[in-house]
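Hi everyone, sorry if this is the wrong subforum. Our group has a chain we'd like a structural model of before ordering constructs, and none of us has done structure prediction before. Sequence below.
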Amino acid sequence: MHIEPALLGPVSLFLGALVGGSASLLGAIYSQRCQGRVQHVASEIAKRETVYADFVMSASSLLLNAYTRDEISLSGDEQRLIGLINRMRLFAPPDVVEGAEAVLTGIVEILLQPSIELRQLAKEALSKSIEDPVLAFSSICGGELNNLRRRVALTGGVPN
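Answer:
Right subforum, don't worry. Here is the predicted structure as tokens:
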């Protein structure tokens, strides 16, 4: 096979441009996909943080009310807490959902006990003689979020 020397330069130039352009295009597509995954994971972490924080705030308020009030009612706060638990069921691991359910159970158990004065509650809290179910839940959530961040960092933006 005989190749015309005059065509060798333009053909090699064309093939080099084709290979270089293809590599650039594939690199851009790969980078865009990875960036999209990282953004998706970041939004997932932000969503979880928001739901967990809302749960902790609502549960903390209800816990204080459970200790200091004798009446049992189903107000918007209790309904919100149940709604947050059900929302967690959509995305949270089982241990987080179980922790949230334990908080709700703990609040109901405290509601069934006689109320105590705020001063007595403060004394017991300072002496650590009362158990805080919200604290255990917060630790579970913190661990889950840290594990998710760690997995994302190790896999380069792709959660397992």
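For your construct planning: The chain has five helices and no strands. The helical segments are 5-68, 76-88, 94-111, 118-126, 133-155.
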